[in-house]
Design goal:
Jelly Rolls; 21% strand; alpha+beta; 7 helices; seven-stranded antiparallel beta sheet; binds 2-oxoglutaric acid; three-stranded antiparallel beta sheet; 280 residues
Length: 280
């Protein structure tokens, strides 16, 4: 996987770049199957609240699992798929570390209940690195992501600005900001497409107004230069090096070699082997 010079330029000047067809059809199907198993195992929690930041909403549902890797060997392997560090290192430079993994799933409309979006924020309001282009999220559309089902919106160039964040009353733990929404772009992506956006890029997702669920897997990466500054995410010793001389294929951080297992994991999940991956 190589980003084109135009894609790299867009990331550096606008703070985001969309790459359709990043994952193939088998990989997408395996993601959907593994998520279904995690959902059925009760691992995803509704983080949407009724406007007080505390009371779990019965009418809005924003299901989140963070982190994912302790619950799924499949999702643990995803950032080690060779095209991931290859693309990320072109955007933020080597060495690349995985900083956090999580999933947000918005169920389809079900009676009164609706899949809820995640309000505007800059990831750097959590992570606080000095150069907001030295960290990037890689958001994978696990299902086709459209305006109607609340796909990602971003404010181009917003990594140059720092917005004030306050507690998000619609979530039990998030913070939010109020960026200039009139500048926002809506990023529609077919399933398997990814959106890279820098830690400083203001972004939000909307409500899912369709009948079908929609999920996004968000992997966050930093350049090793900012490892000691970055707060939140995995504890520093548990942030796997994915490139550079300290990369051990996950052995140092996970105690097992994870690099090289992605294709096997995809086939295992497609064969119905989820029981070995989901704990508890
Ligand atoms: O998928 C979503 O709803 C939000 C994802 C997100 O905001 C993030 O990864 O920072």
């Amino acid at each position: 996987m190589q980003c084109t010079p135009e894609q790299i330029e867009q990331f550096r000047t606008q703070g985001y770049v969309a790459v359709p067809n990043f994952w193939n059809e088998r990989e997408v199907r395996a993601m959907q199957q593994e998520l279904e198993q995690l959902k059925q195992a009760g691992k995803l929690r509704n983080v949407a609240t009724d406007g007080d930041g505390k009371t779990e909403s019965q009418s809005k549902v924003n299901l989140q699992l963070c982190p994912m890797y302790p619950h799924s060997d499949f999702f643990r392997a995803m950032p080690f798929a060779p095209r991931v560090p290859a693309a990320v290192s072109q955007l933020i430079g080597d060495p690349v570390l995985l900083h956090l993994d999580q999933v947000f799933l918005k169920p389809g409309r079900n009676g009164e209940a609706i899949g809820a979006g995640t309000n505007w924020h800059q990831d750097n309001a959590y992570f606080k690195i000095g150069d907001p282009l030295k960290g990037t999220a890689m958001w994978t559309a696990v299902h086709d992501a459209t305006a109607a089902n609340g796909t990602m919106r971003v404010v181009p160039g917003s990594f140059r600005e720092e917005y004030e964040h306050t507690r998000d009353p619609d979530s039990n733990h998030h913070i939010r900001c109020y960026p200039p929404e009139e500048r926002a772009e809506t990023i529609e992506l077919p399933a398997g497409g990814v959106l890279f956006f820098a830690y400083g890029t203001a972004h939000a997702t909307g409500a899912n107004t369709t009948e079908r669920e929609r999920a996004g897997v968000a992997l966050h990466f930093i350049n090793a230069e900012v490892n000691s500054e970055a707060v939140g995410g995995f504890e520093p010793g548990l942030r796997p090096y994915l490139s550079g001389p300290q990369a051990s294929g996950g052995f140092k951080e996970h105690g097992v070699r994870v690099a090289g297992t992605w294709n096997e994991e995809v086939e295992r999940v497609l064969d119905g082997g989820w029981q070995r991956a989901v704990d508890g």
